[in-house]
Amino acid sequence: MRKDWREYGCAKMNLARSHGNRCHFLPPSSHRLVRYCALFGDPHLLRFDGTFETCSEEGARPLVENRYFLIQVTNANVHGAHLTTSVNKVTVLIREHNCTSRLRYEAAAETKRLSDAFVDGTTHVSVDQHKHSVELLRQDPDYVELRLRYIDTSIHLRRQGPYLSVAVRAPLHVLQTADSTAYQLCWAGCRKSDVIPVTKAINATSEFANCYQRKIHVPVKLATDRCKSLSENLTGSFLDACIFDFMLTGLTPYCIPPILCYSRRRISRDDERPCLFGRPSSLPLSTFLFTSPSSGFITLQPMYSRFSINLPTTHTLHQCIPRNTGTELPLS
Questions:
Q1: Where would I find the Repulsive guidance molecule C-terminal domain in this sequence (predicted)?
Q2: CA distances from residue 319 to 189, 199, 212, 216, 322 in whole angstroms, order as listed
Q3: Measured between alpha carbons, how far is residue 21 from residues 100, 126, 250 in Å?
Q4: Confidence band (pLDDT; 50, 70, 90) for 148?
Q5: Is residue 331's pLDDT more than 70?
Q6: Which helix (H) or strand (E) holds 38?
Q7: Which domains does the chain have, with CATH numbers?
Q8: What is the DSSP letter of 291?
Q9: DSSP string, 221-248
Q10: pLDDT of 198-225, one tens digit each?
Q11: Residue 185: which residues within 8 A CB-CB, separation 6 or more?
């Protein structure tokens, strides 16, 4: 037996097999090869390509899905108000890999605080002398970060009042391992029939309210003043999102997420310093990331200059289209 083991090179074969099954961490990606996506507020969606949309979808849809993980979000009606939805459930499924076992994290809007562990009770996965390949970091009771270190990816979840927000940062080559991106919100966006023209809603409030059968809780002028008072640098699409949410809900949790945190520096994956306000006018808006847990705010930061944010112009206020309901996907 020993002779056969040596003769046929079984030792080398066994070594190669074990080496092939080892966990290998991806090196840190250049900021130009990283993508960001976020869903927050009414909800507002910031896609990987920088497109900004406001949607009225109900039901479950994948935010991001690839060979490594799945983020599924469920939007539900708010207080029975017509065409008013928010994220009320987020499910993150981390798929089995050489670097991790299968893990599942669930966040629900009706709970008092975000869970500080995965569904199986674990908070991390260790490989190679206790090096963490996956780690759950609880920044505060309403903010949890899931770090998938082996693929240089982070997923951020925040609960503000009864509403959830989620953001993901991942290398492009990780995201491109998906079989299809046709139904992923971060790639394909909202259904065209569910996109709300926010700028038109602000400029023609009464017409919008009648068309979409939505109640205006706060006058536009008051909502605008309130949002501008949160930050003098809050402008563009994010200011519109803040005004829209506050105008239609009058609720602070909806008003906080669109606060934009500008900074001159590039995003650092481990940088949790408070954001420095003040942005050069030449630097476009492009992405969303939680960067200052101690501040209590969801913050948004610039990513890279080649993308700009575009508001959808698919519908006019006269096109009152009923909302579709999504179908929950099997989480496997």
A1: 34-250
A2: 19, 15, 9, 19, 10
A3: 12, 15, 53
A4: very high
A5: no
A6: strand 34-40
A7: 36-194 (3.40.1000.10), 198-295 (no CATH)
A8: -
A9: HHHHHHHHHH-TT--HHHHHHHHHHHHH
A10: 999 999 999 998 888 888 889 999 999 9
A11: 37, 39, 45, 47, 61, 62, 63, 64, 73
- For residue 142, is pLDDT > 90? no
Instruction: Name 133's bridge partners.
Output: none
Q: Please name the residues in contact with 94: beta carbons below 8 A apart, sequence gap of 6 or more.
A: 68, 69, 100, 102, 103, 104, 105, 134, 146, 148
Minimal CA–CA distance to 57: which of 45, 37, 38, 75? Answer: 75
Q: List 39's β-bridge partners, or say none.
A: 45, 166
Using an 8 Å Cβ cutoff, are 74 and 60 in contact? yes
Furthest-apart CA atoms within the chain: distance in Å: 88
pLDDT tens-place string over residues 320-330: 333 333 444 44
277 pLDDT higher than 70 = no
Tokens of 230: 């949160």
